[in-house]
Every structure is written in structure tokens, then in C-alpha cells.
What we know:
By secondary structure, this protein is mostly helical. It is built from 6 helices and 2 strands, in the order H-H-H-H-H-E-E-H. The chain has one domain: Four Helix Bundle (Hemerythrin (Met), subunit A) (Up-down Bundle). The chain has helices spanning 2-15, 33-55, 66-80, 89-94, 101-120, 142-163, and strands spanning 132-134, 138-140. The chain has a two-stranded antiparallel ribbon.
Amino acid sequence: MDKIERLTLELQQKTKPFEHKFNHKPDTVSWSLHQVLAHLVAAEKLSVQYLSKKINGINEVGNTGVYEEAKMVVVKLSQRLPFKFKAPTRVVESTSAYDSHESLFKDWHLTRESLKQLLETIEDRNVKKKVFKHIIAGKLNVLHAIDFMYEHINHHLPQINRLLK
Length: 165
């Protein structure tokens, strides 16, 4: 969790001086800084909601294994390569509009706090349980969920850096 916390804080500090560009779109098809950051918040919120629901029945689901580890390698690779992916409809529909950089990061912080509280409720023996669902890779565990969130932010960093120029 520490690395995702550091990355989000760095992102907040890096983008703060560019609040004046928060809603600026470089062209008609590209996202603004606001849209990229709001997308990251929405994806994390949906993940936390899904985890919250599935953790209630954590004893009913199986553990992840070698197959899920292999799928996670593919997910990480997909996030590290410079490919564009269409955002899942559910994420697009759940993406909020924020009035400011500050309100967006406040919401992200609240979401992250919810995630941390949720993770504290999971016993060590249950960390490998299939309680996270990735749109492509399918059922994964909470450790995979955190890895995906980290990789997802990193995937969007080049896009964010271009917007800050």
C-alpha cells in the first residue's frame, strides 16, 4: 500500500501547479487532466465497492493460484506498454466531475482510506481469496487489486506528463 500512497501523493503534488490546466483538452479526442485523474478515482472507487461486496462472502470463494498469477503478469504488462485501451463502460459511467483539483484529491483520499479500512478487515489467511474482479483478467485477490491500482496509475503517467507540458 505504501507505494500506491506515495505515487498518489507525488501525482497530487506534481499536478497541483497546473490547476489552471485542469479542464484543458489538447484536442477534441484527448482527455483533460481532470478527466484522466477522475478516471483513476472512479476505477479505484469501483474496485473498493466490489471488494466490499465480495469480502462479505470471503469464506465462500476459492484461492488464487498459478493461473491467476500468470493473468496478473499479463495485466501488468498491458499497463506498462504504451497501448491505449477503451475505458470500461462502468468506469466511464461512474466517473465524477469535480469542481477543482482539491476536491478530486479529497475524494481520492477518502476512497483510499476506505480501501485501507477494508484491507484491515481481511485476515492473513484470506489475502489469496478471489474477491477482486478485473475487467479482462477476471477473478483475482486483494494483493492483485492493489498491484493493478498501482499499475493503472503508472499507465496513465505518460498521458498526465504530456498534459502538464
